[in-house]
Design goal:
Layout: H1 11-25, H2 27-35, H3 38-67, H4 72-95, H5 97-100, H6 102-122, H7 127-137, H8 148-159, H9 165-196, H10 203-225, E1 236-238, H11 249-266, H12 280-285, H13 287-298, E2 299-301, H14 313-336, H15 340-348, H16 352-368, H17 370-380, H18 382-402, H19 407-421, H20 425-435, H21 441-468, H22 472-494, H23 497-505
Antiparallel strand pairs: 1-2
Helix pairs in contact: 3-9, 3-10, 4-7, 4-21, 6-7, 6-8, 6-10, 8-21, 9-10, 9-16, 9-17, 9-20, 14-21, 14-22, 16-19, 17-18, 18-19, 18-20, 18-22
């Protein structure tokens, strides 16, 4: 008797396919898969590891100097002078990044961070040596100072069309936040573990162990950058990002519709711009080819010329206005950020593990706001988006010390601050990269970073004296008021730009 073949129930398989399809069709995952190539993924890995390193230092740096018996004023001077050195370093490296090759500058930064970590291990008694090396090696506090973030963002701007940049930048900041969160958790856990198990007898040795982990991570990051392609160093200009200012919004929409039909009929499904036409497996298998094909078909490479070292008058006018706003914001950040763990340790007597968990959770909350940030940018434009989220952030910042009568209330305000403080990152990146010519992006981002670092330098300098005077709680209030001032200037000066930027973001 022939065997009876029962019908195969492929319901589970069908549901699985349906789930995968839904995941793939999600706007943010779809753009990540179809609009990022090997170079962008390496940049994601770089920012993840770098922020993991900064998370490690954020938890221990102040305590490291306290263990060496430095007073708060001297610590403030150290943080300020290292940032001042970063200003010079950022100016030189970002101004010449295009001609020296961006990939080389990124690798140089990694090597400097490695040397910086070794110095904190072996030359802890020499304040001057620590100061000099930290100036070159970049001592981060989660805000990602130095030129390397600007160069990474410039690379992604050239590798991505304007309408996809909010999402590409959102993923970049998501990996950044996750890395910092893990670093905070690791630092607190490692220190308490080493002490509780009597592996080390002093906290100073525990801190040096953390710097050893910091150095190891630098080597891993350096190995990853060896796989960059030459595209990282190229200035791409995408013709289909151009907007004719003389064309009405209605006519522009009609032109976009015609262009979409032509693209659907003439271009093969493998082209990266057609993000909804390809099955996930095909996209993944042919990812590198599709993204490269997109660049070849819709972009031109801008050669380096003598004029490449100059900024246009239009760009300079925009830059001056933005610098005032960004520098006020950065001054506000520098005034209190490095001292937040110290504030909670002294005010509520938290252990290192509890501090690590607290700031790890804070960064997880920050990471969870990355995509809502880009959603707001798509909805109202980068200027309004920045104003909305940063105003709320300033209110939470002011509330932190006002609620210190209750540990839970103060922590809730801190989590609110972390949930909104970085939601302006994506809209500000979009504002800069959308308004600036392709061959000026790296230099403009470098100049903005220099201005922000210089302002943060003054904030750090003042913070040391504020803490030494026992007035740290008032630093939160001043910081929040400065942030509100920057937001008001932004909305008054640039609200009209949202309309132009939204044209680019909403192009088909």
């Amino acid at each position: 008797m022939p065997a009876i073949q029962l019908p195969i129930d492929d319901g589970d398989n069908s549901n699985r396919k349906s789930l995968l399809t839904k995941i793939y069709e999600n706007k943010y995952i779809n753009v990540l898969i179809t609009q990022s190539d090997k170079d962008i993924r390496i940049l994601y890995l770089c920012v993840f590891i770098r922020q993991l390193q900064y998370g490690l230092l954020n938890q221990i740096l102040i305590f490291y100097f306290k263990e060496l018996n430095y007073n708060s004023e001297k610590i403030g001077v150290f943080l300020s002078l290292t940032l001042l050195g970063d200003v010079v370093l950022s100016w030189v490296l970002t101004w010449h990044a295009d001609s020296w090759k961006r990939s080389n500058i990124i690798k140089l930064g990694i090597i400097l961070m490695f040397v910086n970590g070794l110095t904190f291990i072996f030359y802890d008694k020499n304040f001057l040596v620590l100061l000099i090396v930290s100036t070159l090696g970049i001592v981060g506090d989660g805000s990602d100072v130095g030129p390397f973030k600007s160069i990474e963002e410039s690379c992604m701007a050239h590798l991505t069309r304007k309408k996809y940049r909010p999402i590409i930048y959102s993923w970049h900041y998501l990996f950044s936040s996750i890395g910092f969160s893990i670093g905070c958790w690791m630092a607190g856990t490692i220190v308490d573990y080493l002490i509780d198990n009597e592996i080390y007898n002093t906290y100073l040795n525990c801190y040096k162990f953390i710097f050893g982990v910091y150095c190891l991570l630098s080597l891993i990051k350096l190995a990853a950058t060896q796989f960059f392609s030459e595209s990282v160093n190229m200035n791409f200009h995408y013709q289909d990002d151009e907007v004719d200012e003389d064309v009405s919004l209605l006519d522009e929409c009609e032109l976009d519709a015609d262009a979409e039909i032509s693209t659907a009929l003439l271009d093969p499904p493998g082209q990266a711009g057609n993000v909804n036409l390809n099955p996930p497996k095909a996209i993944i298998n042919e990812l590198e080819g599709t993204v490269s094909s997109r660049r070849r078909q819709s972009a031109t490479v801008i050669p380096m010329t003598k004029n490449s070292s100059e900024l246009s008058k239009k760009t300079i006018n925009i830059l001056i206005k933005l610098l005032v706003i960004f520098m006020l914001d950065s001054f506000s950040y520098g005034l209190i950020t490095s001292w937040i763990p110290y504030y909670y340790e002294k005010t509520f007597l938290m252990t290192y593990t509890h501090l690590g968990i607290l700031f790890s959770v804070g960064k997880i909350i920050t990471a969870s706001t990355v995509f809502p940030s880009s959603m707001i940018t798509y909805a109202v434009g980068p200027v309004k988006a920045t104003f909305i989220v940063q105003s709320i952030s300033a209110i939470f910042l002011i509330a932190i010390p006002l609620l210190e009568f209750s540990e839970n209330f103060s922590i809730a305000a801190l989590m609110g601050y972390y949930g909104t403080a970085s939601m302006d990152v994506t809209p500000r990146q979009i504002l800069l990269t959308d308004l600036v010519n392709a061959n000026e992006i790296t230099k403009v981002m470098g100049i903005v970073n220099v201005g922000k670092t210089l302002a943060r330098c003054f904030g750090q300098l003042i913070s040391g004296y504020v803490v030494q005077s026992g007035l740290l709680r008032y630093g939160f209030i001043i910081s929040g008021c400065v942030l509100l001032t920057a937001d008001i200037i932004l909305i008054v000066s640039f609200v009209g730009i949202d309309k132009k930027v939204l044209k680019h973001l909403k192009k088909k």
